[in-house]
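Weekly sync notes, structure subgroup
Attendees: PM, AL, DS (notes)

Item 1: joint prediction request from the bench team. They want all two components modeled as one assembly rather than separately. Inputs as received:
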Amino acid sequence: MSKWQVQVDREACIGTGMCAASAAAYFKLENGKSTAAQDFIEPDELVVDAAESCPMEAILVRDGDGVVIAPEV
Amino acid sequence: MTTSQEPRNYPFGEAHRLDLDPAYEELRRTEPVARVRLPYGGDAWLVTKYEDVKAVFGDLRFSRAAVLGKDVPRAVPNIQERSSILSMDPPEHGRLRKLVAKGFTMRRTEQLRERAQEIVDGLLDDMEKNGSPADLVEALDMPLPITIICEMLGVPYDDRREFRDWSDRALAVTAFTPEEIQGGFESLQTYIAGLVAERRKSPTDDVLGTLVTARDEGDRLSEEELVNFGVTLLVAGHETTANQLGNFMYTLLSNPERLAELRADPDLVPAAVEELLRITPLGGSAGFPRIAVEDVELSGVTIKAGDAVFTGQAGNRDPEVFPNPNEIDFHREGNAHIAFGHGVHHCVGAPLARMELQVAIGTLLRRFPALELAIPADQVPFKKGRLVRGPKELPVRW
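Output from the run, pasted for the record:
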């Protein structure tokens, strides 16, 4: 399976740290805002959950074909 | 820094209207990480600097779950046994939060703006029809958030008299007896359990229905978690916004200059809501303690593992972050207030609360350009002995 892309919109992020707490392997807080630990990852539902749970919808997850998996439209 | 003096009693006293107790500012200058003595459970720390408050909210070494079933420092006699999302740590907290988070994002909330406008329009039509004066609490502040949260959760609006009464008890600190407070929670649990049972007979796609499905088909939460989550969403979904709407209108109507500024420039409403969120101390008591699970240093003071920490009311008035913190200024740059908290417990309903407050205040000022308090500001009665502050009634005329 091809890799997923994880992006964090640091303009939108307010640094609640919810993603870093629930998916610590994929997100870390830098200067009070979230950032993706790696831009491309092996598929893992944890990042989908993080994107769906972000109050600011600042996390975008795409599959290998560039199709947005989360957040759900 | 000395911390050897006798701890101050905390809460500092009965909350007076929307004033921030001056003790907060004094402590921030003299002892930003202070020892305080609670009415029950002994001594704790109180932090007053913005950065320290944020650190306590954001650092997972400060646990909410560690308060459960323990004789921790607190303002109420009852030891908290009932677990809710407010008293969970990751990863359990995230397991529950993600079940509802999707329904509360900024985008989902924007989709509800039209509906909120419709509700506000209807409520203000009624207010106009019934004529001046009116009690804004009953005319708008309460019915708007209650209608919205009822529709989202799938709670019948007609039951509001009952659940408002139970919720009022459940959120009391000294306004009711410990038995009445406990009874308020139990009535809410029984009520939500009834709605859950109905959904098992005929499924719904509201938030309660989604939670029931998550339990029955995915086993993603326990029955107790399901019921308590429903209770928390119902209570937190209306008490906070309703009281803040009353608080904000009280503040605006008793500050003619700010009111005139907002009337002259309605585009300022979103910024005004942020500034009112910053300046209004919603909490009426000590708030929720966190327990350090290991030693943590805050502003040069070591918080020992096992110590309780309160975040107080003062973070949003820290002059290092907010120049002239006690001034209401609708033009603050980067108003990074922490009225909705910070970290994993950052209010899930924040976008919803913002939207409701913007719609309500914007519409009210537009439709009633002559709106004013019908009694002197210092005679507006405020609730006492509760977790959240708010006017008991807000008589207005136009």
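Discussion: Chain B has a mean pLDDT of 95.
Action: AL to compare against the crosslinking data before next sync.
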